[in-house]
Amino acid sequence: MKVLIVGPGGREHALAWKCAQSPRVARVLVAPGNAGTAREHKVRNVPVAAEDISGLVALARDEKVDLTIIGPEAPLVAGIVDAFNDVRLPCFGPRRAPAQLEGSKAFTKEFLTRHRIPTAAYATFTRETFDAGFVRAQRLPIVVKASGLAAGKGVIIAKTHAEAIATVLAMFDGQFGNSGTQVVVEEFLQGEEASFIVMADGVHILPLATSQDHKRRDDGDQGPNTGGMGAYSPAPVVTPAQHARIMREIIEPTIRGLAADRMPYTGFLYAGVMIAPDGTPKVLEFNCRFGDPETQPVLMRLQSDLPTLCEAALAGRLHTVRAEWDSRAALGVVLAAEHYPDGSSNGEIISGLDQAARLPGKIFHAATSTNKQGQVVTHGGRILCAVGLGATVGEAQHQAYRLVDAVHWPGMRYRKDIGHLAIARETPH
Ligand code: AMP
């Protein structure tokens, strides 16, 4: 069969790499892909952008693609699955209506409240309805979120009431473009975050291996929020009891609620969950796709055939398949541009990739391209993700940092403590 992966990043490199391992798959196309996908066996890049929905439909039709998997949220929120379905092309992801779970935080908060799914207390405002008095009455810190897509940057945790009000007003003034037309103001939740990612077929749910990412840029979980500086799987914070609780209190009512609201959810569903010190899980956010960088370590552990799982979901048969996992832990370290998340790196030659390819583990490319001389060069903010495997998260971390040590470009930056919370749990005190 022929598979098309849509997207340019590290998640898409991991999806393409995993699909290419399937004995059922003869060819994987990636649109547009990167220098990493270009170098994978059975994989070919096609220069069609992830947002070019009509171009992607034409590509899938012309190439007789049997299965398309969408990586990033923007085309999902824009309705790419609806466009594929209109011409009967199999496409794994949620349609436009349920993709609002990521596309509109105002939609999600209303949905969660109506279906009694636990989340932070909140209020939604537009410029016309904004009430600064409401903000002044809230306990500090206060979380302010632009409702629409903001590439992981639309959440500000304000330490004073004045900062919270100024942030809301800046969002109305277009700091995040149209994403800030509506603003959600919500209660700050204490606890430990976990990513809970499942596949869904509208009715049935297949939970994927647990994972946890590091959103802050700097060691010790300090510095600005980013799209993610590293991730590992499994996440020890999600004990079997916690897993059952998140399924029962969050994931199952969400899939049921969406079906009841006549927008059944098919695709990867990612719940960002805050687990309070007393063990209560609450929804921080939903993403309507696989996480980046969680995809990279999670797929390193997946032993089942990914295209078969996606096809089962598209046929509404997810309850008939199982996902098998490598019992080892996987840990991915993101290698980013010097000034990430505010800046990017372009055209700098990345050295050491050949040496790294001889080491255990795997480097996924997130933002790379190939220059005229055929060298792999930087092309964005988060450039690579080095993933190691090991009997413990600590051993996986060791393997990942050996890969990190093998590669270099000027200005390469990364966290040196990815997995520290899990490793602290592994180390007897
Ligand atoms: P979101 O995109 O909504 O997940 O927000 C990005 C990050 O901001 C989350 O991963 C959390 O680290 C943090 N965050 C969001 N909402 C809250 C909240 N209500 N309480 C505490 N932290 C939050």
Q: What are the salient characteristics of this protein?
A:
429 residues, alpha+beta, 5-stranded parallel sheet, 5-stranded antiparallel sheet, 23 strands, 31% helix, globular, binds adenosine monophosphate
What does this structure look like?
There is one protein chain. With 429 residues, this protein is α+β, with helices and mostly antiparallel strands. Helices cover 31% and strands 27% of the residues. The protein contains 15 helices and 23 strands. The radius of gyration is 21 Å and the shape is globular. Bound molecules: adenosine monophosphate. Adenosine monophosphate binds next to strand 7, strand 9 and strand 17. Residues 120, 143, 145, 155, 186-189, 193, 215, 225, 272, 284-285 line the site of adenosine monophosphate (AMP).
Percent of residues in helices comes to 25-40%
Unreliably modeled segments: none
Structural class: alpha+beta
Q: How would a crystallographer describe the biggest sheet? A: 5 strands, parallel
What is the overall pLDDT average?
95
Give the DSSP E fraction (strand runs of 2 or more residues): 25-35%
Q: Provide a count of the helices.
A: 15
Count of β-strands: 23
* Straight-line N-to-C gap: 51 Å
Bound molecules: adenosine monophosphate
Q: Can you list the strand order of the major beta sheet?
A: 3-2-1-4-5
Q: Any idea what the shape is? A: globular
Rounded radius of gyration (Å): 21 Å
